[in-house]
């Protein structure tokens, strides 16, 4: 029997706003399967986003959903989680939203190790505003504001998260659809701040400016560059040139913020 | 306006003058049943710079919370004496640290001088209680709050372990001021 | 039993007022001269099982309180000038998403870093016009430590009652001075909580105007699932661009305050019955004004004081009525004429308006006001 996604989608809220060929829908389905696997209660789960194409995701989902301001998802979500630690809090958004305007909230959520899961859909571009370069646009790539080629170096989102103190960091791609739910489920189960970066595609504003002839070509690129962490262990530096590691990249156990604050309450009440 | 009495504690940041002002005001409003307002102005420095703490005491409602014509001024540094003595009223009380304020502000004031900081350091035993020595002196010189009220206010503000030290500092300041005035 | 009495700083009283009102969440970022509010909340909230969080910046602080408010908590943040500027986008978010929250903004010199330890009253326009777009604005300007406590309680009540952000804006003098405060007993001051939904989760809509201009607000995690966004939204909370609806909703959000001005606006009239010169003042400046009025009366000059307690919505009706009675207004303020402009607008030329402006980090003293009274009487 086919998986029943409708169980988790708000009636009447589809179709979504995403363009044909965009990978955000693949990620949303992966998230739904992960939620289903874990049996998360709709009433007890908040899905929080910022601004951008990816940030429209919560509106389609039948949960407690909060579509905030550009870059601020992690800060709003921190308020939700602190006030009601018993809720599952999941953040979704794009690369510009999360690592540029929201970069400060992102790194501090990592540092606090607050028990939330952040799914970053990295399509290397500001899609909703028409294709301006983001902190994740590769050097040399074309965007509407880098028509002569992007002079900026790009962030490695996973390294950024690890460096800032996130205790679970994973990466997948929109091509590897069946892996997404597993990564997200593991991330949600992890106690602490977990980050799942999904390499995504934006055919409309990135693909056509960067010589991708079709969505299939963009998807094939994701397929070609992805190397599972395990496989990478047996590869040489030369073989790994231009590749991107996927799977669970980092995991550690460290006290999480709301548990630590519960101890503050205990000490204050003495 | 006749009931309004204005006191200014001035010196350098870190000397505890804001606390001295707070205790004086607490003595008046909590223990003596008068009206009191304490306010302060300070610079960006946590230590050093010029700092002042003002206390208005009155029998009736206090509207303007800052000093208008100062009845009594404490200056623990030369900078404070220079900067904050301009609006001390004629016949007002001027208390200075005799070691630190060498150029005594000119005017028709009842000037009282004794080595406040050195008293704390050498006779009480800790320089940190110079503000309480100064407070004791200001209580003696102004008479605007009762000695009992002020002592209670001091003790309510300090940790158990430092009560004796502060009691001694307050008493020493009180006595030295009376002796210096005579 | 005698009531609890304490000698408190204004900022401490604001924090105590918030706790009295039932605040259980504080999100903040350190900024002079408001930090004592955060410090008190960091000590007191965990004692009652509440939450204090120091966020990574002013914007994050504002975001955290909105997030917490949506779980049903009563929430507070505190800031000062530059922080208020940074918070403005999300204050707009709280307005359109109709999320109750209270912001204590201690007014210091500006713009930008300005004079961080000096008093000012130059944020009053920012309280109304700081965030973009049309939106309701409520701003209270207390003048004493006791009043800062009471007005913070009232700010929570107004935020909860009207589902909107409310600002409490003491100037640095009121925020930092210390006075005796008598703590009200529990139950002595009214404490209002937001209206919870009376319908089932299936029927619930977060902006259901069939319940009036202030629809009931459910809490995340209480069995009600709903969507919150900063986009123009329909009754169900989902984005909409339907022209007629968006227009009606924008108007409703502003009407929540405009139609309830008499419930919100508070002021104090002092010696105004026969006054020829009316001083209009707020915050610590109103205390200088009262001093000056007393002095003027002693000298036989008919001066009075209209003290603004609620700056927004502005007491338009009262100022307009006064304009028909007095010869002149004097508007002392620690800015270059913000309230003065409002008084002129309301006076419509019926009485002259004379400003006294100070932006040098010093308070306006009673002598300055008295001089002006004599000049214009």
UniProtKB/TrEMBL annotation, chain A:
Residues annotated as domain Thiamine pyrophosphate enzyme TPP-binding: 51-198
Record GO biological process: cellular respiration; small molecule metabolic process
Keyword Oxidoreductase: yes
Sorted UniProt keywords: Oxidoreductase
Single GO MF annotation: thiamine pyrophosphate binding
Name of the protein described by the UniProt record: 2-oxoacid:ferredoxin oxidoreductase subunit beta
Top-level division of the source organism's lineage: Bacteria
From TrEMBL, chain B:
Record's protein name: 2-oxoacid:acceptor oxidoreductase family protein
Keyword Oxidoreductase: yes
Chain ranges of the Pyruvate/ketoisovalerate oxidoreductase catalytic domain: 13-175
Alphabetized UniProt keyword annotations: Oxidoreductase
Pfam families documented for this protein: POR (PF01558)
Species whose genome carries this gene: Geomonas anaerohicana
Automatic annotation (TrEMBL), chain C:
Domain of life of the native organism: Bacteria
InterPro entries the UniProt entry points to: 2-oxoacid_oxidoreductase (IPR052368), PFOR_II (IPR033412), Pyrv_Fd/Flavodoxin_OxRdtase_N (IPR002880), THDP-binding (IPR029061), Transketo_C/PFOR_II (IPR009014)
Keywords, in A-Z order: Oxidoreductase
Span of domain Pyruvate flavodoxin/ferredoxin oxidoreductase pyrimidine binding: 17-248
Pfam families per record: PFOR_II (PF17147), POR_N (PF01855)
Positions of the Pyruvate:ferredoxin oxidoreductase core domain: 275-368
Name of the featured protein: 2-oxoacid:acceptor oxidoreductase subunit alpha
Annotated source species: Geomonas anaerohicana
Source lineage: Bacteria, Pseudomonadati, Thermodesulfobacteriota, Desulfuromonadia, Geobacterales
